[in-house]
Amino acid sequence: MSEEEKRNNKISRRQFLKRAAGASAVAAAGTLITESRASAQAPPDAPARWDKEADVVVIGAGCTGFPAAIVAQEAGSKVILVEAEPDIGGHAITSGGNVPLGGGTSAQRKSGIEDSPDLLFKDLTDWSIVQPNGFPDYRYNDREIIRAFADNSAPTYEWLVAHGVIFIDQPVDTRGGNGVGNSVPREMHTAVMNWPMVQTGKPADPTVQATTSSGNGLMRSLEVAAKKAGVEILLEHRMTSIYRQTPNSGRVLGIAVDNRGARLNIRAKKAVIIGTGGFTGNVNFRCMFDPRLTEEYCGLSGMPWSDQDASGEIAAMTIGASLWGLYNQTGEFGTHITKPGLIGCQYNYRNLQWVPGSRVFNLARASGLRVSDWQNVILVNMLGQRFYDETGDQFTANNAGDVKRYVHGNYLNVVNIKYDPRNFINAALAGIGDGHNGGGPIWAIFDADAVARQKWRPTPPNVDIDAGFFFTANTLSELATKIVMKYQRSRMPARNLEETVDKYNKFVVAGNDLDFGKPAPRYKIAKPPFYAAWATPVIHDARAGLRINAKCQVQDMNAQVIPGLYCGGESAGGFSQHGLARAACQGYIAGKNAAAERVI
Ligand SMILES: Cc1cc2nc3c(=O)[nH]c(=O)nc-3n(C[C@H](O)[C@H](O)[C@H](O)COP(=O)(O)OP(=O)(O)OC[C@H]3O[C@@H](n4cnc5c(N)ncnc54)[C@H](O)[C@@H]3O)c2cc1C
Q: Whose CA is nearest to atom 21 of ligand 1?
């Protein structure tokens, strides 16, 4: 070890302890959301006393919960909707508002598109290849669940419109990220409208409110409709367990909630509907699907507006529920893990940028720097080593029409497409051979020239220095030494970073990346100051969850219905589709069936 390295090591050890303590303090203060609030529990005994009661109790005021609650209330049931957060909306309100409901909607007819439930069912159960990299998106879908979606898809769309949801007045298309494998256009887009957006705290520019796609208008319209229908909405009421007659048998009786530290028992005379939105924020739970997804994958999309803490799944499993359709979570397709689009901040999903003014900006802490050209940075692991072509992308997704000569369910799709995996995410999650499962932090390294080219302002609130998601130094060696934060479990050797950059700069001169084949690496990293910005992959959505049937009733390990328990959306399994359509449709189905239950 050189004298300089020894000196750096001494400095960095002190810094390490200070920074690690700082990061823990931030975590303890509750501003660095990294650990889940939900954990495995013993089955609860039914309470002797109920604090509140309704016919149907819906958990989660998101894309599943609102349709479920409104449908049940309008069918004559008294409904209580509990929401863990101080405001409604869940991930849906942060979403892009692209809604692929088809099967013959009035919007499709207006656009001259012929569709039917049978065609929709056929498309979403294609065994063959629908992705241009050779992956079968829909081979692992549960046929019963897709049949129910196909039959209820168009009615759900008409129901949303009838309940005040404004879709942008334009032809139905395939643009919003759910087009793959659909043989006809099915995508519609909900208008942002004039409610303040959660990302900014302000309404969108009035000139684009009717033409900008966003989940904002979708969820606020449903909130208005729910209140009008008489649904009782309880904010800051977090479900902590579900009661059943005996821990593993009989009907579901109600739920326990936590309201700012006070515990309440809410009786459900007919049914409980789980619309809690998945598990991506629960490290132990998500590692059941993929052990690589350890703590450092804390840049969860949709957070910190609402958590995906697996509380619905855990509470249901505690009383006997089964999981379902697990391959959909691990298959190398779709958007369940994404490459970040923002760097230097914790919440770095490409399509969601938090800015000051948002109610949750104190939790998000920084907006991040948007990378428009990955030629401007190199990406290194904890040890300061490159691992892949930085311009490489995440698993294939959202590729309507990308497969040429695609014929539904035809073996020629398999023959014509060569299996060609995209391995950027796999390389980023590969780790450093230290025996840990997770790959550790990924850092974007760049210099002052890159800042100028990208027109970045690398200062707060754009970057998160205090919690250790962004570092600056005048030399590369100093930069490596400074990288100390909660998830950097191994120090970055200064010499590694210097050697990596030196080698990369030579590749730039030669116009050839001999290590990872980055197409014509363009810019040297040479002009101080130098920067290290958090660029770790993002977990985006849950595509596996509780076992449900066509009525959205939750089932146990013996395929028996758990009486009085329903689920939809990201907490339900068996359906590989990114989001809003399946959640809204399953909420619609669950609400109808729950309201039809007899009172106990
Ligand atoms: C940034 C972003 C963009 C997206 N864009 C699109 C898009 O354009 N098109 C698309 O189809 N999909 C999109 N999605 C996905 C889509 O938003 C989700 O799949 C959908 O919202 C899931 O609905 P849900 O009801 O399952 O969960 P959510 O909408 O997240 O609702 C779950 C609700 O349950 C609450 N909750 C959780 N646990 C508890 C508890 N224990 N007690 C009480 N309440 C609880 C949560 O706080 C939340 O409000 C996007 C997602 C994100 C994050």
A: 92
